[in-house]
Specification:
- The structure holds 2 protein chains of 2 kinds.
- By secondary structure, chain A is α/β, with parallel strands linked by helices.
- Chain A is 41% helix and 28% strand.
- Chain A has helices at residues 40-48, 72-77, 95-109, 117-130, 135-139, 148-162, 178-191, 206-210, 230-239, 242-251, and strands at residues 2-11, 14-24, 29-33, 53-62, 65-66, 80-83, 90-94, 141-142, 166-170, 197-201, 215-220, 223-228.
- The longest helix of chain A has 15 residues, at 95-109.
- The radius of gyration of chain A is 18 Å and the shape is globular.
- By secondary structure, chain B is mostly beta strands.
- Chain B has 2 domains: 2-361, no CATH class; 362-410, no CATH class.
- Helices cover 15% and strands 40% of the residues of chain B.
- Chain B has 7 helices and 20 strands.
- In chain B, strand 1 (77-82) and strand 2 form a beta hairpin.
- The chains are: A alpha/beta, B mainly beta.
- At the A-B interface, helix 2, strand 7, helix 3 and strand 8 of A face helix 5 and helix 6 of B.
Chain lengths: 252, 410
Amino acid sequence: MLHIKGLEAKIEDKEILRGLSLDVKPGEVHAIMGPNGSGKSTLASVLAGREDYEVTAGEVQFNGKDLLDMAPEIRSREGLFLAFQYPVEIPGVSNMNFLKAAVAEKRKHLGLEPLSAKEFLKLVSEKSKLVELDGQLANRAVNEGFSGGEKKRNEIFQMAMLEPTLGILDETDSGLDIDALRIVANGVNALRSPERSFVLITHYQRLLDYIVPDFVHVLYKGRIVKSGTKELALELEEKGYDWIKEEVDAHA
Amino acid sequence: MEETITNNQIIDIERSVLSMVNVHAKAQLDQMQWPTTRDEEWKYTRTGRITKESWMVSPIQSNAPWQSLQIENLDVYTIVIINGQFYSQASTLPTAAGITIDTIAPQERIATSFGHFFEALQAAYCTSHLRIVIADKVQMDRPIHLIHFNDGQKVLSQPTLTIEVGAFAKASFIESFGSNSTEQSFGNRKLNIHVGENAHVTFDKIQDLHDNDFLMNDDQVHIAKSAQFTINTLTIDGGWTRNQLHISLDGENIEASLNGCYLPRRNQLVDNHTKVDHRFAHCNSHELYKGLLNDRSTGVFNGKVHVHLDAQKTNAYQQNANILLSDEAQMNSKPELEIYADDVKCSHGSTTGQLDDEAMFYLQSRGLSPDNARRLLTTAFINDVLNHVENEAVRAHVIQRLEQEGLLYH
C-alpha cells in the first residue's frame, strides 16, 4: 500500500526528514509519535504534496505507483487523504459545491460514472452521520466560522465522502475536547476496513485509546527510531520522549 | 502615447447619417483635448487607442442581433438602442399611465459647460437622447431593459439617457451593452438619473462587449430625501471600459448602494471612477467593488467619498478588493475620503493580492485540479458582489456569461 524508503526532505535550507522508511500494508493502522520538531507534520505534508517541501532523496510507492511524481490532486484521486492539522477556512465556497466537485473529479479519474444529484445527497446524509455533522454545517462555507471540533469533524466527513485507501490524520486530536475526540475517533473507526489503511500522526497517546493502532513508531530527528505495538505508546505517555532521545543521541 | 488628435480628424461627422451636431457643445469641444495620462483623473487609463481610429456614426442596422443580450426568464419592457440610436420598432414600451418615454430633439437639448472631453464629445455628437419619466407613486410591474448594441464598422454611439423617477415610485432598470464581435465600436453613453423623494430605484449595468470595443459611461445620479438607490456595474467583457459614476445625495435619510465587479483579461482595461457626495445628514452609502485581473490586464479604481460639512451622522462604507491572477496584471486602487463633518462613521479599505496558496492546496488535496480550485475561489470572491444584484434572473444571466467565459465555476 504505502512504501517509504530513505525519504529525505527539506524546507528552505532546513533538513527535516533524514532517511525515513515506513511500510504500511492494507488495513493497517500506524501511529507516528514524536517530540515537537521531529518531522511528523512534514511527513504528512510531503506525502500530500505540499510544494514548500523539497524531497532530496528516497522514494515513496503508493499502491505500486510513484507517489512523489504525482500532483497533489492526483494523489487524492488515487486514494490518499490528508486530514489537516489546521483545516483552511474558505469564505464563500460552500462545503457542498466543493465536495461535489471533489467527488466528481475523483470518479472521473477512476473512470466511474458521475453521481446523480440524488445519489450525491444520499451519500452526504449517510456520511455526515458518521461524524454527527448536522446538515447545516454541510451547507455552510468551507470551515468558515467552524469551531475547532467542527473543523476536524468536517475533515473526517470529507474523508468519508472521498473513500480513500490511505488516510493520514495530522494531529487530528489537537484542540479537541473529549466529546469531539470521541466523535472523530468513532468516525475513523467506522471507516476502518481490510483495504483501508491509516497513518495517525499525534503527539499524545490519548487518541490511541480511541483508535487502536496496529503499530506505533517514534519519529525523532527526521527518522523512525523505534517501532512497536500500542504498548509503546503507553510507555511514551508514562516516560516521555527523553529516554528515546538519549538512546538515539548516544548512538549518534 | 501622448498624441492628441483633434476631434475633427477622427469624427467625420459630415459623412454620418445624422445631422445632430450641437453647435454650442462642439464649440466647447474644439477648445478641449483628449485626456492624457498627465491628467490626474486619467493617470492609468490611456485614450491613445481611441484617438487613433476614425469613428463614424452609423444608421440603425435592423438585423443587429441585439436579442443576444436579452435575459432568460425575465419579463421586461425593452428599449433597444442600435448604434446609439433609439430603435423604436424593436422596443417594447410600457403603456400604463404614468410612464412616459420620448426622445428629445437635438435643438431642444441644452448644452451646459462640460467637465471633461468625453462629456463635451458626447454632447456635441449625441446620437439619441431618450427620456424616461416615471410619475409619482407609480410602481413599475417589471424592469425596463435598456439594450445597447453596436453593429457596423468603427461605430461611434453616443446616446444620452435621462431617467426621472417620481416621489414614492418604484422602478428597476437593467442596461446591457453588446456589440458585433468582428467589428470595432466606441460607445460614449451619458446617463442622468433623478430619484425622487422616498422612491426606490435599482439599476444593473451589464457590460459585455469585445476586445475591440471601447466604452465610456458617464453616470450622474441625484437622489432626493428618504429614497433608496442601488447601482451595480458588472463588467464581463470589453477591451477598454471606463465608468464614471457620480452619486449626489441631495436630502436626508438616503440609502445608496454602489457595487461593481470586473474581470479583465488579455489586454483589457477596466476603470471605475466613483464619487459619492454626502450633502445632508443621516444618509448611508455602501460601496463594494471587486476585481479579478488576469493576463496583462489593467484595473483602475478611484473611489471618492465626500462628506460635506452638514452631513452629520453619515455612514459611508467603501471597499475595493482585487485578486491578481497573473504577474503581468496591474491594479491601481485609490480610495479618497474627504470628510468635513465631525459626527460620521466612514470606513474604507483597499486590498490587492493573489489567491490564497493555503486554500489552493487544501482544495487540490481533495482532488480538485488547480484550474477548478482557482475557479471555485474566484467565484466565491466575485459572488460577494453578485449577491447585491437583487434580480435573480439578472444574477443568473451574469453568472452564466462568466461561466461561458471560463471565469467562474459552477
